[in-house]
Design goal:
- The chain is mainly alpha-helical and about 230 residues long.
- It has eleven helices and two strands.
- The chain has a two-stranded antiparallel sheet with strand order 1-2.
- α5 runs parallel beside α10 and α9 packs across α11.
Length: about 230
């Protein structure tokens, strides 16, 4: 097998496994080459192909990440994100995400629903809070994408960018007790099922219930930390 194809096969196997979920960072090239038994030149060639296919993306100075490159947040939205608070984000989520779930129940394609179900399983299998955070974010964005409204998706991305802030991430992880994790998984399964059943009213109500539970958990964790 030619060296690039061999490198592609090994990398594809790594990406399909549980160790590197979407948006996680791969090891440095030198470490990854040793790990996979590849030359660095063959590894680079394979990474270039995978990047072109949208399976990985690179950030200069930070490394190579799994999945497609996140859409850049417009400067004006970045400014808003840096000035807002978790309570404001939760108010916005409570207004927007139930509507997105309603629209997704009406507009989602079969392929989009299948993708939600895959992401649902990934989030349920998460072994730690950081991995849960990645798959949870992907699932909620999949619902937003399935609403097929570009403007609402942009608004969703603006407040979803809060997840990348260290203080916000620490708060979410502190709030994710085993009991809440189990409850959130049940919520996810319920609203995805409602979307799959093409029941907009139920999807909206179940998403509202979920966001309310997330809000209560986060604000409770914030109060306990004061």
């Amino acid at each position: 097998m030619p060296r690039r194809e061999r490198a592609m096969a090994k990398l594809t196997e790594v990406l399909a496994g549980p160790d590197y979920p979407a948006n996680s960072r791969l090891p440095a090239e030198r470490e990854l080459a040793v790990q996979l038994g590849l030359s660095r030149s063959a590894l680079r060639e394979a990474l270039e192909v995978l990047e072109a296919q949208g399976k990985v993306w690179r950030h200069v100075g930070q490394g190579t990440f799994v999945g497609t490159r996140p859409a850049p947040v417009p400067a004006s939205l970045s400014l808003v994100t840096s000035r807002t608070s978790p309570s404001e984000v939760l108010e916005t989520r409570l207004l927007l995400e139930p509507l997105l779930a309603r629209m997704a129940a009406l507009r989602a394609t079969d392929a989009e629903i299948e993708q939600m179900e895959v992401l649902l399983e990934k989030s349920e299998a998460a072994r730690d809070a950081k991995t849960w955070e990645l798959w949870d974010g992907r699932l909620h964005r999949a619902v937003a994408e399935a609403a097929h409204n570009g403007l609402l998706l942009s608004i969703f991305d603006a407040f979803n960018a809060m997840r990348r802030q260290a203080k916000w991430g620490a708060l979410r992880q502190a709030a994710l007790t085993p009991a809440r994790h189990a409850a959130y998984c049940a919520h996810h399964r319920a609203y995805v099922a409602a979307i799959a059943a093409r029941d907009p009213a139920k999807a909206e109500a179940l998403m509202k219930k979920h966001i309310e539970a997330v809000r209560d958990g986060l604000l409770g964790a914030a109060a306990a930390a004061e």
